[in-house]
Structure formats: C-alpha cells, structure tokens
C-alpha cells in the first residue's frame, strides 16, 4: 500500500472517538498473567541469535539469560561494570584481549535439558560467529578470535583486538543469550525458533495459534534470582494502533508499546490521565541508508541532496519529548558523540533546500527525481518516513512509500530489497558499535538474509572504513579511540552512506495497577518484567 502522511494522521486521530476494544483483541481475565501488547502482526522467532524483529526480544530476554546484564534498568555509569548473571566474576588481561569468565554453577535449562556449563557458553559464541547459523548480529562478535573452556564453570574469550568495553558492548544485549547445545542439536535451527530452551526467569508455555495472541511464558520457580513476581507473562501482537490503544484503555492488556508519533501521547493522556509512561533514553537510533548499488543513489550528489533536504530538527520537534536530535552515529549523550557544536560543518547536513537543488542540478536532474522505498506500518518508522516524504517534496524529490507489515518489512529489507533502508536499534554506549553494525564490510546485507545491517553496501560498492575501524579497535586508549571513531563517522557522512536522523526513546504505557518494581531510566528497548506485579 502506498502511504502518505494524511492517511497516517487520519488513522491516529480516530482514537479520540473510541472507548471500547473490539472483541477480536480481548484477552482472558488477568489472574496471574501480565499482558503486554506490541506493534507487530505475530512472532517471528525466539532465537536470540537470528532475531530481527525488536518486539520479539521481550519474550527472548525472559526465556534466556546472558552472562552479564544492565542493572534494572539503566546503562552502567562510565567505567563501571554490568551486573553478573550467568557469570559470577571475570578477569581481563592487561591488554584487554583475554577475558576469563567464571560461571554460576548449578543453573538448569528449562524442561529437563540439564545443567548449563562452559560447553554451552562456548557453543553459543561459536554459533554467533558462524555465518551459516547466525543472523545479522554476527558482525558484533567478529572480534572474538576464540572461546575455550576452562573446566565446566569457566570460559576464556580471546579477542583479535583489545576491547576494554567487551562486557557492555558484546555480552550485555539479548543476542548474547546463552543457548542449550543439547536443545539446539535436538530441535534444529528452525525448531528452536518457536520452541526455545533457556535458563531464564520464564519458560515458554504456549505459542498461540492466533498470531495476535502471541506467546505465553510461565514463571520458572527454580531461577537463580528467585521466581518472578507474576506467574505468567503474555506477549501479544496487535499491529493496528487503534486496536492496541483500546486494548489498554479497556483493560484487556496491562501494558502496550507506545506510539511514537506526533500527538499520540497527549491524546491518550486526555482519555486516561492515570496511565504511566515509561521511556528509555536514548532508546533506538533511527538511521536511513541509501542503497549505493541502484539508481538514483549510486550518484553521491543525489545522496547528499537527499540528506540536505531532510529537516531533522523538524522531525525531533514533532515527536518530542520522545525523539531527540542526533548529529553523528553516536548520540550526544554517548562517549564521543557529536553535538551541534562539534560536528564538522561540511558533514553536518544542516537543512538546506537550496543546496539540495544545486546538487541535483549538478547531477543533471534539476527538476528532481523519484524513487520507491519500503517502510513499516509501525509508527516510529512510518511517522518519520512520512515527514521525510513531505520534506523531500519541497525540493522536487518524490519518495513513493510502500508501507508493509512490520514483520514483512524487516524480512524483506534484511535481504537487501530496499532502495532507502531504515533501521531502528538500541545500542550500548560503546562508540565503535554503530560503526561495526552499519558501516563495516562484514555487516553488508545479503540476499539470503544472513548478512548484517550495512544496507548501503559501504565498503563493497565503494571504498569504506574497514582499515580505519581496525585501527580504532586496536587502540586501547579510550580518548584516542574516540578520536578515531569521530574520524570514521566524518568520512561515512562525507560519503553520504548513512544519515542519523534521531534517537527515539522506547515507550511503554502501563496501567497504574502495574508496579514494575524499579524505575526505568535508560538502556535497551526492552526491559525485564520479573519484578512486575499487578497490584489492583
């Protein structure tokens, strides 16, 4: 479906006149079940190493455990360590290239799959680096040269390059969840996607036949952290904004993924003032990536014209306070992040319609050009892309948006089909991480879906930054590393292969009857619900 801004805004405005959820989204009585609704049409996978649909990660992080985690729920202060989980302690070599991780003993996998050992940890990280078995997360783990076992309760990671932030950057996100070797070998790669075996605070109880009903998880009474406060957790998938909102207003769900579009938060607050809004900051990094291998974006002048035609200040203002302006790949609040004052003027891409028209004239298309791009129906994608569509029209660029179901959008884009790709992902405060994810040749998108998030094909279509990245990863001094990171970002921006648009805080809206058990401050775009209770 080709979409424009008017059709989108009209759909969200319909909320004002509705008060009851349709029967199709009504769930069963709460009892000991905490229900949370997400903006997608169904589960894609519960395999943490192949997940590309962010909302699936809410179930993934409750079924699985990682070696380390964030403290609930915020990034650790600079210089401090994450919280031990399946790891109990760690040591690093002086050059930060060898890390010995000591494991918690006696931790059981779900459903009789035995005790977690160092062999499972080694198996997990060997799989993460295997191009046949792993998904788009693989580039994040390519600095691991070898994983060896040191008895049943310790592993040693040896790195190609020093990494003083190894724990936070590599081990703390959902994709580093420890897998059961036995379960994977028995169930196979496809089987584990809908029948996962972890060590987490919840185990999988049901994958519902109705995709909208999602999955139900059952509390693990033997979890090393103690049983969760609520017996069951149900992750529902309700793609329609109105239906999802009304499910919350009517009490059919206790929590929902908020709508990151202009005016929505004010509208729902007016209808139910006691709702609680939890927002993590900086949340997701929203970026756009022109495909360098197809017209019109094989011409750098047209890429630069597009970048100058995008008014990022207007976008951030429209979705404030959830959306914040970014200038480089790392947000201003992260180490090394460019600010309005520090970004080099020649790559700042300040909104300049006249410069955009001049570049198009130099490229031989003074009257503009057209291209087709896919986007997701999910609001944080569609709202931003519709604003960009309007902005581009002002200079004669016709971006014809094809809106897709969120799950289908990711599936297709992950095989490299989009002309102007969009990506929204939460990353740790590790300055090299967005470069590894979005700019390295190793992360290039592939037609079989086994590639990464380098949707522009930087380093493949034109020379990229791999040598500079290798030098940055080899630099143990953080200040010098940050300087190298800023140079890499400046080169990529100069080549116009990626435009950082904004950071969009991930918002969950919940009933006042739900007590999370802690305050959400910062971190990834999913957070643990093990302490959450229904109190009324």
Describe the secondary-structure layout.
Elements: H1 5-13, E1 33-38, H2 57-63, E2 68-69, E3 83-84, E4 87-92, E5 98-103, H3 118-128, E6 144-149, E7 154-159, H4 166-171, H5 181-194, E8 202-207, E9 215-219, E10 232-237, H6 241-249, E11 255-257, H7 264-271, E12 276-290, H8 300-309, H9 312-318, E13 323-325, H10 353-362, E14 369-376, H11 379-393, E15 397-404, H12 406-413, E16 420-425, H13 433-438, H14 466-474, H15 478-494, E17 499-510, E18 514-515, E19 533-534
Parallel strand pairs: 1-10, 1-11, 14-15
Antiparallel strand pairs: 2-3, 4-5, 5-7, 6-7, 8-9, 9-10, 11-17, 12-16, 12-17, 13-17, 18-19
Helix pairs in contact: 8-10, 14-15
Describe, in plain words, how this protein is organized in 3D.
There is one protein chain. This protein has helices at 5-13, 57-63, 118-128, 166-171, 181-194, 241-249, 264-271, 300-309, 312-318, 353-362, 379-393, 406-413, 433-438, 466-474, 478-494; strands spanning 33-38, 68-69, 83-84, 87-92, 98-103, 144-149, 154-159, 202-207, 215-219, 232-237, 255-257, 276-290, 323-325, 369-376, 397-404, 420-425, 499-510, 514-515, 533-534. With 536 residues, it is α+β, with helices and mostly antiparallel strands. Strands 1, 8, 9, 10, 11, 12, 13, 16 and 17 form a nine-stranded mixed beta sheet that branches. Strands 4-5-7-6 form a four-stranded antiparallel beta sheet, with helices on one face. Helix 8 (300-309) runs antiparallel to helix 10 (353-362). Mean pLDDT is 90; it is low at 1-31.
Rounded to the nearest angstrom, the radius of gyration is 23 Å
Fraction in beta strands: 15-25%
Mean pLDDT: 90
- Give the biggest sheet: 9 strands, mixed
By helix and strand content, what is the structural category?
alpha+beta
Shape field:
globular
The poorly predicted ranges are: 1-31
* Count of discrete alpha- or pi-helical segments spanning 4 or more residues: 15
- N-end to C-end Cα span: 42 Å
Number of distinct beta strands = 19
The helix fraction, in percent, is: 25-40%
């Amino acid at each position: 479906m080709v979409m424009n801004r008017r059709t989108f805004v009209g759909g969200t405005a319909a909320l004002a006149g509705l008060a009851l959820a349709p029967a199709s989204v009504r769930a069963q009585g709460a009892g000991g079940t905490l229900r949370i609704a997400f903006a997608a049409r169904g589960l894609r996978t519960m395999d943490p190493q192949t997940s590309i649909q962010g909302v699936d990660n809410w179930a993934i992080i409750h079924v699985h455990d990682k070696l380390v985690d964030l403290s609930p729920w915020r990034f650790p202060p600079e210089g401090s360590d994450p919280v031990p989980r399946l790891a109990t302690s760690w040591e690093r070599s002086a050059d930060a290239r060898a890390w010995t991780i000591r494991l918690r003993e006696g931790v059981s996998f779900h459903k009789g799959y035995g005790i977690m050992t160092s062999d499972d940890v080694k198996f997990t990280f060997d799989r993460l680096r295997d191009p046949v078995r792993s998904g788009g997360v693989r580039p994040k783990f390519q600095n691991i040269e070898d994983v060896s076992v040191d008895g049943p309760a310790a592993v040693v990671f040896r790195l190609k390059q020093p990494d003083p932030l190894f724990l936070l950057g590599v081990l703390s996100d959902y994709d580093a969840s420890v897998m059961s070797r036995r379960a994977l070998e028995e169930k196979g790669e496809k089987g584990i996607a809908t029948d996962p075996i972890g060590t987490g605070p919840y185990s999988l109880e049901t994958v519902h036949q109705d995709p909208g009903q999602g999955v139900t998880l059952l509390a693990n009474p033997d979890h090393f952290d103690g049983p969760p406060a609520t017996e069951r957790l149900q992750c529902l998938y309700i793609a329609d904004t109105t239906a999802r909102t009304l499910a919350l207003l009517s009490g059919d769900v206790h929590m929902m993924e908020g709508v990151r579009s202009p005016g929505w938060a004010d509208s729902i607050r007016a209808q139910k003032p006691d709702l609680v809004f939890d927002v993590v900051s900086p949340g997701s990094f929203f970026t756009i990536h022109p495909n360098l291998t197809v017209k019109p974006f094989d011409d750098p002048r047209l890429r630069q014209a597009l970048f100058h035609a995008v008014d990022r200040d207007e976008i951030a203002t429209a979705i404030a306070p959830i959306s914040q302006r970014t200038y480089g790949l790392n947000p201003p609040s992260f180490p090394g992040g460019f600010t309005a004052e520090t970004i080099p003027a020649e790559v700042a891409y300040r909104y300049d319609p006249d410069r955009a028209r001049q570049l198009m004239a130099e490229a031989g298309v003074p009257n503009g050009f057209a291209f087709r791009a896919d986007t997701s129906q999910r609001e944080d994608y569609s709202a931003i892309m519709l604003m960009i569509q309007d902005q581009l029209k002002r200079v004669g660029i016709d971006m014809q948006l094809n809106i897709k179901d969120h799950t289908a959008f990711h599936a297709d884009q992950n095989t490299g089909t989009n002309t102007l790709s969009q990506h929204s992902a939460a990353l740790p405060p590790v300055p090299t991480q967005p470069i590894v994810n979005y700019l390295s040749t190793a992360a290039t998108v592939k037609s079989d879906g086994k590639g990464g998030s380098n949707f522009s094909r930087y380093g493949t279509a034109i020379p990229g930054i791999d040598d500079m990245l290798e030098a940055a990863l080899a630099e143990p001094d953080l200040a010098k590393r940050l300087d190298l990171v800023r140079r890499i970002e400046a080169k990529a921006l100069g080549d116009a292969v990626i435009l950082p648009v904004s950071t969009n805080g991930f918002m969950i809206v919940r009933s006042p009857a739900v007590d999370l058990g802690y305050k959400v401050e910062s971190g990834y775009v999913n957070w643990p619900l093990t302490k959450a209770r229904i109190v009324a």
